[in-house]
Fold each of these.
Amino acid sequence: MVLVLCIPTIQGSLLSVEAISPFSASLCGIYPHNVTISAQKVQNAGNQTIENVTAILVSEPNNGGISIIGPSLYLGSITPGILSVDPSWQVQCADPPGVYTLYVNFSNAQGSLGSSQEETVSVITVYANDQTPPNILSHFPLGVIPTSYMTMEVVTDEDATCKYSSIPGVGYANQQYSFQITGGKSHKVPLQNLIDNFYTYYVRCKDLAGNEAWSDYVVSVEINAPPTATISLSRLSPLSVGTTEVAITTSEPVKPVPSLSYSCNGNTVSVPVTGSGTSWKGYIIISQVNLNEVCSFSFSSTDLSGNAGSYITNGNVFLIDTIPPSAPTAFTAVEHRGLSVKLNWKLPLEGVKNFNIYRLTEESRDFYYYGTTTQNSFTDTVVSIGKTYAYRVSAVDEAGNEGPFSEEVSLLIKGISLEAAAVSAENSGKPTVKAALTLSEIDKTIAEADTLLEEFNALRTRFKTGDNPTDSVFSLLEPSELLKEAKVSLLKKKEGLGLLKNGNLADENIIEEFQAIKDEIDQVRHTVIVDIKTETEKSVVVKAPEEEQISQVISSYLATKKPAMSEEEKDRYLSSVRKMQSAAEVTAALQNIEITYLDGTKEKVVLIRKQVRIKEDGAKDPSSDSSSVKLSLLEFIPKDMASSVEEMILEKDAEIIDPDPLLGYPAPETGTFTYSYVLRKPVDTEAAAKAATLLVPKITPSSTTSGSSDAIKTDAKSWNFLTGNAVVSLADTISFYDVGITIGIILIIIIFIYSLIYSEKEISLKIQHDFPSFDRIRSYLPKRNRKESKNAGRMFPYYAHDDYQEAGLTPLLDSTLSVLLKKTDDALHDLDFEKAVKFYHLFCIQHDSASSKKEKANPSSERIKKKMTLLTKHTLLQYAVERNEFLNVRQVLNEIADLYNELLPGASEKEMRLLEHTRSSHAAYSAMLMKRK
């Protein structure tokens, strides 16, 4: 009998794995040191439960590069189907580096149950731990570079990112510049506009593991490029008939004489030049008319090293235009009310820069040049009744070619009556002044002014009770100050209405003045704030200023504060600023505000509030371990937030560095500092986040970089931020020229006012333009009593209206010299030109008495003279702008700057309003003048 024992066998590969995750991984070096390996979707493909299963993670090769924590994992019993839990193992890297394959083996007591080796594996790459910074193996170019440009390249022994600087010893994080191509082993950056010189760059790199080079790799090259040229013309292109000087500036000294020619439509003309070194000049003579051509220069020269060059970096193309524009057409002349002639004409088809006006009078024998305008109209205000005037006009193009005259027009000035003016206006459908004025209309307007004053008092009471928005909003908008100014203005308007009642109500000038006062009262309503509504503040994400933005802001800051700073000093200052930014923590908030004015109009503005916390070492000089510096905060506002400071409301301690705008604030050495400003147009939080805040070392007037005698002289100067020049302190030196100019201006003002009082002659319209509103001033000034001969030459002051006295004015009959000086000073601080002139005039009259000799030496009197001159300059500035006399604008701005710099040291708190008004006005007009360029 044979006994057969049947032993069941376990079929192989009963268990399988769908995937091992991750499929691949990198460990050590710059990568993590561990990873989790999972066997996903373990499946029992049979129809029976498999007991006591163990899963083992296997590494091949198994030479120590992979360390598996607990490679054997007990899974227990696995029923048919997919296991609900994915087994996983922790894998660490070790030496040696290499590539390792991981797979899973399944088994139990009966033997192997399957393996994923043939189905799915995980490939692990182990790198060596990198603690060595990258090395630069080579650089390019080498030696002497024969061009003004090059591409600097360095090659590293491993993948890295590289930066460079012109200053040695700078850490990688603070390097000035980055390579344009970097991240691999080759790092490149183009460099242009190089001049003949030795250039040294200091390079540092950081590898992908974060290892930074601790020493500089020095790249030294010599530039010996051929000479280039910049060409400029003494007249702006296009050029017309005549001689034009050509100036050539070479990039380096050249010898012999360079060659210059220009070509127009294939015709080449040689231009002889003279000069030496880098400066040469010649002349272009254009005699042929009716030309309209595009011309280009050709240049060649040789430098002292023998390099020949012919490249023109700027000014190589110009235009010739000798074709004059055609004559204006439809030329008319119409007499206007107020003794003036309005000229109108149609524009020629060609481009025109301006029009020249020519006039013929009964006294002149021929037409003479009378003025110019950029518009197609012109108003002649210097005419007399009963005289005939003839006019003609010509057009001038951009090249200066003047075209033929228009047809001649002439006009007899008859004078236009009020009735004729009213009829003319009615026929034209345009509003005009009334032909008559009644006392009841004046009284009604005075009553309206009284009602407004009562409203002002109610608003003033409300503001005092504390029913206000937050302090920062209230202090910025200053509704109380605006209310005070409006009240003073309204009292003046009411005083003017009272004076009109004593005049001839049928006089056209009286009617016009009445209408002007009514319009000004309406305007006052728009300046008074009656309500301020604020919304909830929104936090603004403050972005760290970018490198390019820091450079742009600091460049503008230094150009204003210290234009004479050398390039090396600017680089050091910029480097300090970059290091200092980590010492400031900036938070910001945005708040929408709705302002309601007395006339019912509403304005929506935005308040930006910034808080800056300066760390303990914030005032530490980055270039020194012990020294400290004074700090300033710079606020750069982008154009999409405000195009200029005119679209902003600023705090009193804000300094306008650049109207573009760039603001400055004094900052503490440590602690928290808060400042705010208002934008007059809506912006969102995204736009507000673009405003950059920089912590910078303060530029002081006496700061210098050397100990030379020149530096000592610089310390004795105060920096003139209005003109950009250093102005020696008055205590060190006195300019007799400036003193003479100032005294001359004051004498002109006194003589002019004296002529208003004692002269019965008509004052020319031009003088009235130079000193506007003097007719109003004359009504306030003392008048001559011609009825009693015994009083001849004696002055009697005009007693003001009761409301005028309520405004705080002492009756002039009781005024002493000290009172007159104080009243003049107060009027100057309130920017009230008319009132200041009146009191100052009476003060000058009192000086003629023997008792006033001591007052003449009063220092306060001399200071008031300067402030009177400063306010007068403001008026002359407005007149010059209205007449487009921009050369005069530049001169007056510089005169204002000189006076400002004399008054600023030791200025009182009251004087600061006049000086702040001067600073704001100077900045606005200077910006306008610079934009014209």
Amino acid sequence: MSRDSHFSEFNDSGHTTRLERRFLGWRCPFLGVVARELLQEYQARNTSQDRVDLRDIALVLPGRRALRRLTTHLVLEAERRKIVLFPPKMLTVGALPELLLSPPADSEKAPPLARMVSWIAALQQLPPDLQKALLPFPPASQSVIDWVSTAQELDQLHLDLAAAGLSMSDAALRLGRMVSIDERRWQALSQAQREYHSTLKKAGLFDLDLNLLRLFSADPEQADNTYSEDLNFAASGPSTICLISTIDLPLQLKKLLSLSRKSIVTMIHAPEEHRDGFDDFGCLNSEYWGEFALNIREEELHFVYRSEDQISLIAEIITRTKGAGFSSEEITVGVSESPLIPLLESELSEKNLRVHTAEGVPVVGTSPFELLRRLFAFVRSRSVRDLGTLLRHPDFAAWFVSQYPEDNRFRLDGSEFASLLDNYQSQHLQHIVYDEMPGTPSEKNLITSLVAVLDQLLQRVTLCASWRDFAEMISSFLLEVYVLFTNRREKVSQKQIVDACAAIRDELDQLAMLAQLGSLTFSATEAFSLLEEGLKTRDVPKPPNGDAIEVLGWLELLLDDGAVVIVSGLNEEYLPGNVDINPFLPDSMREHLGLPDNAHRYARDLYILAALRESRDLCCLISAQRALTGEPLTLSRLALAGEERSVASRLDLFYSRRAYSAVVESESDDGVNFLMPPPPNTKGVVITNLSVTAFRSYLRCPYRFYLQYVLKLRSESDQLYEMEPNLFGNLLHEVLNRFGRTKEACLTEPERIAGVLDKLLNQVVAEQFGCLCLPAVRLQIEQARERLNLFARWQADWVKEGWVIEQTERSFGRDNLFFENERGDNIGVSGRIDRIDRNRATGELAVFDYKSGDKPLPPDKVHRKKGEWVDLQLPLYYLMLEKEQPGINPCLGYINLSADVNATSLQWAKWSIEELQEAETVAKQVVNDVSMCRFWPPRDLGLGYDDFAVICGRQSFGQEEELEE
């Protein structure tokens, strides 16, 4: 270690500030070295060697994790030395101003939400000409939420400039001397900042960054003293400020430190030979590090083909490293591509490698906030779809059940409400929730009960008249939900819920403060949107995971303790990446104003990589050729900061085809990824009856039959936007069923038949869909009307030929048709015939099934494929009627309800007696196999839409099948 101490004189204040730099080297992880240095120095100063008093020191670090790690090192070092430790004050860089300054009298620091809303007020108060100069297309409404994104951009611009000691007008003045600028736009920015300041001041709030601009008022270039307010340095507090690896202090803080009359000690993670790479405060010299030659060894670099291949490679490196004697706590994984973190965490855990991600769980991803998000989505839309999503939240569902009076409470688990609502919606396809929804009496009872409880909740939401009312309502609602139900959760989950609720409550307190900012109008959904914006940058910590490998972001790696570091994502797109572009301040302007730019970002990341390589026993750097999205990536410039010969070698390796790939493609013979499904468990299965359509299911795939008819599995969706084919067909079936039972069924005038069908359609639609169904359903209803008009023409001609409808929707069961299995048991067959007609002149009987597909197929193509029976619907109808009336020999056919005017309306099944006898043999075999529980193996005879594709290890393919029942 070496020290570099000097004093700086400041004539404007007449005092001296002592600045000292200490270079602690980079041969090992830094925080352990810092702890030893501090305790060694202060133990030597104390007269009593058994104690060390650090209470007069403030240790300043870049982040919270580094604070926690250094605290641990200080405690362990004190234990090793067997001394009593009086700990120092420890804080992050962002808390420095509040340590050094006393807040303005009679004023309160503006929280982030208040700042954002103040910017919105400032934007809305700009004169129209200045507003248009700033925003060519400003939001049309005064709704708070419509202005949020612009307010956030202005706030970030304000923070960036203030960190360099510049107001908006200061920046405009400086830029105007060097480059051509849009003067009108910068005038608008300056005016908006003054309005912002005025709004906060009237509310008794202050923006510390604006107040700190007074520090720069002596600079002749600074012309704007609008924000000069009294600054008072705190009379008490630590006498020494120790800056630990603070490589990126803004100019504003450097000035504040230099005026603070404190002793400033900077501990630098580098040997003294790099003294020119740091300024007096230990911040990086971008020019020095930007030209630093980083000669990475070839064995440190690893190239993979796909981004996800990095995970398998990381697992291999960890396994080898642990085999070499390193523990999990000594290994750290750094991830610069943030979407990779959850995949890495999941897959390493599957490989029995315990990991802990320092990145917390975003508050907006926790259960309490997700509940609020779903609630306000429903408040905004009142749609049935959003209601279903809300009911699927387990915490809301449990609270929902608790709201019913004890004497009227549903005997249901909360989760069942969502399933019941899905079933209801699949039949009625309602757009929004309202009082008189259609359905059966039992369905209406369910919906009415749902609406009653929801209306009470929505009334609480919509009656909020102020920001404070809204904050109190949300807080009390969360308290109701989680006081009731957190006792059902594991302790870890409870802590996350408590932390999330605390963060939400803190943000709600900020919302309540917005009342001080004046009479900005808002709705409940706008207030929630502001709450969400405020919480987007907050997270709750993940629980510790024992002896686990740490997974960190790039900037956290520098002050980590691991002896082994594995860095993924060494690609230009992630490292060094680019400074976030503010639309009001491009990179060229940032350079002119002395703000951190892309060159500085490169220098910073090159230094970090150099320090990592020097201070770790093993450093592995991984670069991928393709991103998670499949897009090509480029090798980071950080890997090319060396000799030209090694650079060429690295580029050759990166772009070669020898890159590591962990994915092994495996496909079945038909090209579909295949995973063998679990065999059926038939213990206790007894089947005594089969529906007509069940025969088709078994013939196509015995295993899928088992899933559908034995396990009763089915697919459900809450994302229905229109009638599915079966529901559309059922609508037509019901209209034609009612038509067949009217006296008008014997009419021969197409127009009169069409009129009757039209009225019946309106009747069925009113009963099933009410008046507020989904928009696409209304269009489908009109399409059904067109098909019925075409049917009316055919029906009139059919009656003229002497045919009359004898029965519609004729049901039959085991008393009408059954087969005997090999044990001698009778297995019944049930079904429903759409229509039976009789010719008045000849006495012939015709059995029909309605088909509503767009491309009608003849019966033989539906029932047989390559000479094999795959469907027995019409033959079973024939067998039932023959058993009932032997020798009747009915004709079989389809009545097609296609929208195609050229399609054949009537298609006959032209099977011989022998073919029908063959179908009967197949039916008997199916009955026997099913009753004997023969459901294996799976088969595939060209399935269309497959509800069980995932279970059966196949992707669904082809088109959805047409309605058959």
